[in-house]
Design goal:
Elements: H1 2-10, H2 12-16, H3 34-39, H4 58-70, H5 77-92, E1 122-126, H6 129-139, E2 147-151, H7 156-164, E3 168-172, H8 183-194, E4 212-215, H9 227-237, E5 240-244, E6 252-253, E7 265-266, E8 273-277, E9 290-294, H10 297-306, H11 315-320, H12 341-352, H13 354-372, E10 378-379, E11 393-396, H14 402-412, H15 427-433, H16 441-449, E12 450-452, H17 461-474
Parallel strand pairs: 2-3, 2-4, 4-5, 5-8
Antiparallel strand pairs: 1-9, 6-7, 8-9, 10-11, 11-12
Helix pairs in contact: 4-12, 5-12, 6-7, 6-10, 8-9
This protein binds pyridoxal-5'-phosphate (PLP).
Pyridoxal-5'-phosphate (PLP) is lined by residues 128-130, 154-155, 157-158, 218, 244, 246-247, 277, 279, 290.
Length: 476
């Protein structure tokens, strides 16, 4: 026990916690994150730096307790407030507390504040980004035989939701040297489909045929895609654009970085709809969860009904409205994708911290940039306006064996990951469509070189330095 206390006092825990040792001292964050109190116990014996760690503090604990004690656990007033606060933030970049609405059945709709012709955003909480993407595609009318264009370089969710609906994903390569869907390759694929050809030109033509209905660009790692170019292609071919914004909260774009009205926009609020993830490792983390954002009343209404069995009233409304609580109508065979209030309460606290958490991620990424730029062994990730810095996807020189590098990092006690293994190499898609690895050469090349480094708010200077020296050691 003495040994343990000695370790806690003089060792990594004592060195890890004080905010005063950090370049950022957010005014609101005066507490020790609960996650640190628990996981720094691991550091007594090992120099473990996990790949990801949520930033959970006492406010998050209190928010969950408030819900546990309230007698209402499922979707209710907390979720309604979270949706309003999230929408308000996406529209104005400022936080709004809607505590006064927590016990009402409905809230006044938000007004647009970004100019004429720019309707207010509606946000709908769901239990994951995957379910949000599914609901949004369904609401866009995507069905059997339709085609949806997604990057090859993405997570399973982006394409599987297309298959849920009996539609076909058509993969698009990333632009050379980037992790983002190439708008030129998007246009080429849509052109082929629109003229009745098969999606892919290689080997005399192969892949799905069908009407291109929607494009699903991914703001990989938190860096927004070239939305101007994607929206231009979409307008030319009458495609819906659903932004996979799972990584990108908050990613703020300036005028000129996006097509459309308004002065500033966040990634996820530019296309017909955007979908955010609150999965445990994401910038705003509730364990599981997601949010659909749209300016289309029609899409919002359909998503709202379909996330809860196709029932025309929310559970919360049934218990708070003056109409009979037992009566409802099923208007479509919907799903069970609602977000419970415990998670929404957690999300509201995380939302209130989002700019401070962003500042911490930016600092870590800046330290990595400074350490790895100018070294031939590495290519640092591109960054730019609105980068939420969710990932730090370092690229290793092709002469370095990436898999051996990862193994060494593991031995050194540093958690790393790979984002992503391109979907066309996955057995399901490879076998269904007959892909070869080099059908999307840019995606395959990026995958072979990529390794994602730890980047989570609360990392100490010592931990960042340790990751940097381990990276150098692992490729020496
Ligand atoms: C690009 C991308 N889209 C969608 C998702 C799905 O998010 P969720 O786990 O909330 O369903 C993920 C998850 O990591 C992702 O990386």
């Amino acid at each position: 026990m003495n040994h343990l206390l000695g370790g806690l006092k003089g060792g990594r825990l004592a060195g890890a916690i004080p905010y005063s040792s950090r370049p950022f001292k957010p005014a609101r964050l005066t507490i020790t994150p609960v996650s640190h109190r628990l996981t720094h116990m691991n550091h007594i014996n090992h120099m473990n730096i996990p790949f990801a760690r949520p930033f959970i503090g006492e406010e998050e604990e209190e928010a969950c307790l408030r819900v546990l004690r309230s007698g209402w656990l499922t979707t209710g007033g907390e979720t309604l407030a979270f949706e309003h606060e999230f929408a308000s933030f996406l529209m104005s970049g400022t936080l709004r507390n809607t505590a006064e609405f927590l016990h009402s059945a409905n809230m006044a709709p938000l007004e647009s504040n970004s100019g004429a012709g720019d309707p207010a955003l509606r946000c709908l909480a769901v239990n994951s980004a995957t379910s949000g993407l599914h609901l949004t595609l369904e609401a866009c009318g995507v069905g059997k035989g339709d085609v949806v264009l997604t990057p090859a370089y993405t997570f399973a969710s982006t394409a599987e939701v297309v298959r849920y609906l009996g539609a076909e994903p058509v993969f698009v390569d990333v632009a050379p040297g980037t992790f983002h869907m190439d708008p030129n390759a998007l246009e080429a694929a849509v052109q082929r489909l629109a003229t009745g050809e098969q999606a892919y030109p290689a080997r005399g033509g192969f892949g799905p045929k069908g009407a291109p209905k929607a494009a699903l660009p991914v703001h990989y790692g938190g860096l927004p895609c070239d939305m101007n170019a994607i929206m231009t292609v979409a307008a030319r071919y009458d495609l819906k654009v659903i932004e996979d914004a799972a990584h990108s909260f908050p990613s703020k774009l300036n005028p000129g970085d996006f097509a459309g009205p308004g002065s500033t926009r966040f990634a996820g609020a530019i296309g017909d709809a955007g979908v955010f993830s609150f999965y445990a490792t994401k910038p705003l983390a509730t364990g599981e969860g997601g949010m659909v954002a749209t300016r289309s009343q029609e899409l919002a209404d359909r998503v709202s009904i379909m996330r809860s069995h196709g029932i025309d009233r929310t559970i919360w409304n049934r218990y708070t409205d003056t109409r009979a609580s037992w009566y409802y109508e099923v208007t479509a065979p919907g799903y069970k994708y609602n977000m419970p209030d415990i998670l929404s309460a957690l999300g509201r606290v995380q939302l209130s911290r989002c700019m401070e958490l962003l500042a911490m991620r930016m600092h870590i990424a800046a330290r990595y940039d400074a350490a790895f730029s100018g070294d031939d062994r590495f290519i640092i990730p591109a960054t730019g306006a609105g980068d939420a810095r969710h990932l730090y996807p370092l690229r290793l020189h092709p002469s370095i064996n990436r898999d051996a590098f990862i193994q060494t990092m593991r031995t050194l006690g540093v958690g790393v990951s790979v984002h992503f293994i391109p979907l066309h190499t996955m057995p399901y898609y490879r076998d269904r469509y007959g892909f070869e690895d080099n059908d999307f050469p840019e995606s395959f090349k990026m995958f072979k070189q990529e390794v994602s480094l730890p980047l989570w708010p609360g990392m100490t200077e010592e931990e960042i330095s340790s990751v940097i020296s381990c990276v150098r050691q692992a490729c020496s």
